[in-house]
Structures are given as structure tokens and as C-alpha cells.
Design a protein that fits this description.
By secondary structure, the chain is an alpha/beta fold. The protein contains 10 helices and 18 strands. The chain has helices at about 5-10, 35-55, 70-80, 115-120, 140-150, 170-175, 190-195, 235-250, 270-280, 345-355, and strands spanning about 10-15, 20-25, 60-65, 85, 95-100, 110-115, 125-135, 155-165, 180-185, 205, 220, 230, 260-265, 285-290, 305-310, 320-325, 330-335, 360-365. Strands 9-8-7-3-4-12 form a 6-stranded mixed β-sheet, sandwiched between helices. The chain has a 5-stranded parallel β-sheet with strand order 11-18-17-13-14. A 3-stranded mixed β-sheet has the order 10-15-16, covered by helices on one side.
Length: about 375
């Protein structure tokens, strides 16, 4: 399937970020804007097809960038039966890290578990960095430099992204280093800052409500695979199938329903997968996820995000997260991999959902 910039790209205003005033929002990605999970997977699969034809004879390690590309990387690894690991901002005990940074981001630190990367390097022909969008390409060049310094053996690299906004100078840098770029849509950022500034930013900002509001509707499900550690697409697909099979046994069905499935921060793919399964069962499903990104919201009709809920993270109490444009659904499923649920965070999320009229809410912790 062919995609265009007009189909996918919406421009939003970053909040309190002088390095880059705008944010490119992909409306079909399932992060900020609610989307049919089938539509998101069709887009991810189109990118997977480009890699499959380019590297049919090579053994790949895919690296998905947190937060927004974790689901893309996971999906492509499943389609290509490839090794997969994501970057993370979470702290995992008992490991060492390769650190790098995103200079334009509000949360600059990114890291890979060093031992996990080392466990697959010998059998890897090529490392493919998977992003939702590449603009300057500096972040990826940064991690490539770290990998080349740390591991002196010859490595091949590629980049796969839904959107590519690199200018000619950035593309030339990659060409000189013989790093192929694969993408669905070529974009130009020349007018993005101006577009962002044309919006008022006067949307609806909802503060966090951490008041306890009854028992937490929690179900713990097993088979968890943590993609912050290296896994294979096949193993992860099997684990997600087991997750879905456990989830559907917990729910009484009433026929076709309108259902929201929410992921949390870096944990996006499991929600999208369960959502796709629910679509196959005849439901109308929408997916998106909580995020650390504090994006301005605005009332203008053409602006992509209109209402912002500030939340306490399910992962830790001193972390702010956000959720955009909630609506009322017949039921809501939340899928998280938070190792120790922050109760205040759970209540802020439940209260935001209930404020929109959602009554049937189920929280699934994958562990």
C-alpha cells in the first residue's frame, strides 16, 4: 500500500521545548491519536515488506526506539522472524547499558542493555534501527558511533522509519557511511515550525486526579517477554498470543462493542495486538497509549489533539505522563508491563477514563 504525507502527518506544538517547537504526529501509529489497530499494523507491515525484500539473505537485529517506535520494531521483527530489542528509559537492575541521547527530545536519555546486544552480535549481519520518524538522523549516528567504538568488528547498519524528513545534507551523511534508509513517506520539515505556531495551543488541559475511587480492576496475566531485552519475533509473537488467550478468558462477551485498548508508555505492541484480535472478533476498536510527551493541545479543528489529561505514571510516582482525546467506549482495556504498579498513577488513569463516562474498565498487567 502507498502512503502520503497528507494521509499520515499532522503537526502539533511541543510544550516548553526550544530545541524544536513542533512535533510530527502520525495519526495511524496508535500512540497519541486513537486508531484502528488493523490500520496501524497495515502501515507497519508495509515497512516490513521493504526490509524483507532488501535483506532476504541477511540475519537482522532490529532496534526499536522508545517510546513511539517500540510497537513498530516489534511488529517488523515478528513479520521478518528477526531478533529484536528496544531502547528504553526505564531502569533495569543487574545490567549495564550503552547510553546515547536524543538532542531534540524532552527526555534525552536513551539506553540499550549492553549484555543483550552482545549476546546476538556475532550472528548478526545487519543492525536495523526502527523509528516512527527520522529528521536529522543524529541520534542514530550517535548510537552507531558508540557501537563501532565499543565493538570494533565490521558491522552493517540500516534505518527503517515510517516517515523520513531528512534534508539533503543529512541524507548525504548517511550515503557517505553507506547506511541505507528505508521509509514509507518522504516529508519536508520546512513549514512545520510555522504551521505549529499558527495554532493557539488553547485546548482543554485536565490536571491529574489521584483520588482513590474503589478497587483497582486488575488482572495479572503471564507469558511476559520484556523487549528491553533481546528476543526473537517468533518468541514474542507466541507470548502475545498467550497474552490474548488469557485476556479473552477473563471477559464476558456481549457481541459487537466499541472498545478502547490503551498501552502504557513503552508498552505499546501488546495493546495493539490484543486490539487487532478484538477487531477480528467483530468489535470496533481504537488503540492509543499514555506517553511522556507533553504536547500542547488546541481547539482548532485541523489541529490533531484537543484535550490533554495529565497523569501520574503507572511505572513511578514522580513521573508525569499524558493521554490525549479520550472518549466514551462500551469498555476499556489497559495493557501495561509496569513491574510495580503505582497506585496513584492507576487512579489518575481510571479517574480520567471515568470522567469521560467509561464504566467498564479492565487493567491487565502483563508479568
Amino acid at each position: 500500500m502507498m502512503y502520503t504525507e497528507e494521509q499520515l502527518v499532522r503537526i502539533a506544538k511541543r510544550e516548553n521545548n526550544a530545541k524544536r517547537t513542533y512535533l510530527v504526529v502520525n495519526k495511524d501509529q496508535g500512540k497519541h491519536i486513537p486508531v484502528s489497530p488493523g490500520k496501524a499494523f497495515a502501515m507497519f507491515d508495509a515497512l516490513a515488506e521493504k526490509l524483507a525484500s532488501a535483506y532476504e539473505e541477511e540475519t537482522l537485529l532490529l532496534i526499536g526506539f522508545a517510546e513511539t517506535a517500540t510497537a513498530i520494531g516489534a511488529r517488523i521483527s515478528i513479520r521478518l522472524h528477526a531478533d529484536y530489542i528496544q531502547t528504553t528509559r526505564e531502569q533495569i537492575e543487574g545490567v549495564s547499558y550503552l547510553y546515547f541521547s536524543e538532542t531534540h527530545s524532552h527526555a534525552t536519555e536513551q539506553k540499550l542493555i549492553r549484555e543483550e546486544v552482545e549476546s546476538v552480535l556475532e550472528k548478526t549481519d545487519r543492525i536495523v534501527f526502527v523509528e516512527d520518524e527520522v529528521t536529522t538522523g543524529n541520534t542514530i549516528l550517535n548510537i552507531i558511533h558508540i557501537l563501532e567504538e565499543t565493538y570494533p568488528q565490521k558491522m552493517h547498519f540500516s534505518v527503517a522509519s515510517l516517515l523520513n524528513g531528512m534534508d539533503q545534507a543529512a541524507q548525504k551523511r548517511y550515503a557517505e557511511k553507506q547506511i541505507p534508509l528505508h521509509y514509507l513517506v518522504k516529508t519536508s520539515h520546512e513549514q512545520y515550525a510555522e504551521i505549529a505556531q499558527s495554532y493557539s495551543g488553547k485546548g482543554n488541559y485536565i490536571p491529574p486526579d489521584a483520588a482513590e475511587s474503589g478497587d483497582i480492576p486488575l488482572i495479572c496475566v503471564s507469558s511476559y517477554i520484556n523487549t528491553r531485552r533481546c528476543t526473537t519475533g517468533d518468541l514474542y509473537a507466541d507470548a502475545c498470543n498467550q497474552l490474548w488467550n488469557q485476556m479473552k478468558k477473563q471477559i464476558s462477551w456481549r457481541g459487537s462493542e466499541r472498545i478502547l485498548i490503551l498501552g502504557t508508555e513503552e508498552c505499546m505492541y501488546p495493546a495493539l495486538f490484543a486490539g487487532a484480535c478484538l477487531e477480528h472478533c467483530g468489535n470496533i476498536v481504537r488503540c492509543h497509549a499514555t506517553t511522556r510527551s507533553p504536547i500542547a493541545v488546541s481547539r482548532e479543528e485541523k489541529y490533531p489533539l484537543h484535550k490533554r489529561y495529565e497523569l501520574i505514571s503507572l511505572y513511578e510516582e514522580n513521573r508525569k505522563t499524558f493521554l490525549y482525546d479520550l472518549e466514551k467506549y462500551d469498555r476499556v482495556w489497559i495493557v501495561t508491563d509496569a513491574p510495580n504498579l503505582c497506585e496513584k498513577g492507576v487512579y489518575t488513569l481510571l479517574n480520567a477514563l471515568r470522567a469521560c463516562g467509561n464504566e467498564e474498565i479492565q487493567l491487565f498487567r502483563w508479568c
